Amino acid sequence: MADILIRNGTVIAIDAERRIIADGAVAIEGDRIVAVGPSEEVARDHPAGEVIDARGMAIMPGFVDAHAHAGHGLVKTIGGGRSEPWYKACAGGYTVGSTPEFWHAEAQLAALERLRFGVTTGVSLLGGGDSVMRTDRPEYGDAHMEGVLGIGTRSVVAIGSTRPPHPLTYARWDGGTRTDYPITFEDQFATCETLIDRWHRTHEDRLHIALLTPTLHQEHLEKPGAEEAIAETRKLKWMAEERGLIFTQDGHTKGSVRIANQIGILGPHTLLSHATGLDEDEITLCAETGTCIVHNPSAVAAILARCPVTELIDAGVTVAIGSDATAPDRSGDMFRHMQQCMHYHRTHFHDPSWLPPGKALEMCTIDAARVLGLDHEIGSLEPGKKADVILVDLRRAHLYPAHMPEYRVTYFANGNDVHTVLVGGKVLLRNRVALYVDEDAVLDAAHREAELMIDRLDLRDALKTPRMFWGHSRDLDLIE
Q: Which of 22, 23, 163, 389 is most buried, most CB within 10 Å of its CB?
């Protein structure tokens, strides 16, 4: 007997046959899917204690967001798009301006956003991209993990080192008193080991650790400390291999993939984010080594140079979609990023035939699971896989009439159409209401911790509306 039967909906399975079942059902026992098929057939063979009527809804695998940033949820919009105050908030907040309470509050806010948008698994870099990680002490990673646990989604948390030279100044706070201290690469390496031992593949396998180092560009190889940076990169990559972890880097562009290959860090367990401006040789390197790519179509990096997604896919490279959330101009809504992805590449080619919606949907379900080495567990609705399931309410004005639902969920839906979410067979969101968390408490804690961080770093001026916000065709302050 099944525990939960979801029936009467349109199943978009993303399984090997890419089945779309008009009146379909999913049966769940414990944390696993045991059957997917026509409603009458599954209901006959798998009577259940709880039946969820999905009439008028799409039944889909939960989304997988392959690249985002922990911490960013409490600094979004700061600076109004201007780089200097934004990076000041990130660099300061992730070293000297934050507390464990900050990381717990941000983790809860980001995980709640993901839950409400149907993102059941997400990658979160514990800090500001390829330059600053909050890995001086384990307590900050602990706080993040505890925050995610309180929401119930899955998380792959990327931790690692900051860019040399070391040591880098970090700080802790006791009330209003700040205490600075230096942190070396060895300190960060030890913190990573502690967090791996403490958290990787724990809590019903919902929490995973990945390792990260700063991306090396030609400019870094021409500066003092280049050998140190290369040695640190290799050391963390080797630890990732030894511990069975994904190794990731943020911000790859224009020649950095070639450098990564020279260092010896490409391979099937390596995930490179952004990957803009790649030439043909770099595309071939990714294909030959089995290196995976996460494309962030809504990011500023995608404006400055193009990620050759279609060329990578045609070369046999697995490419996922990431939100790069949250930031001054983007959320964790994967529907938004699918739509952005399709238009981005069609505009490049001046041709609407590129990136069919089914491929975009694969890039944030089964392909995203594959780049994380989790496609045997999540990313599709198939017997034996984890029961990470979302119901998307199709009975809404912008999604009607009801034909061709596989097009409607990719072209017209948005995160607020997610009605119900299950992670590991547990219903976490029902009728758009989170069942196991006080949403007001999460919001209040997030605002409180953001305010405290802003005051610690004297960032009040960065909250003012930019002078060219209204009435101009271009905000020139963004390029000054």
A: 389
What's the confidence (pLDDT) of residue 312? 98
- Model confidence over 351-391: pLDDT tens digits? 999 999 999 999 999 999 999 999 999 999 999 999 999 99
Position 322 pLDDT exceeds 90: yes
pLDDT for 86 equals 83
Q: Is this structure's pTM higher than 0.90?
A: yes
Q: Report whether 279 contacts 256 (CB < 8 A).
A: no
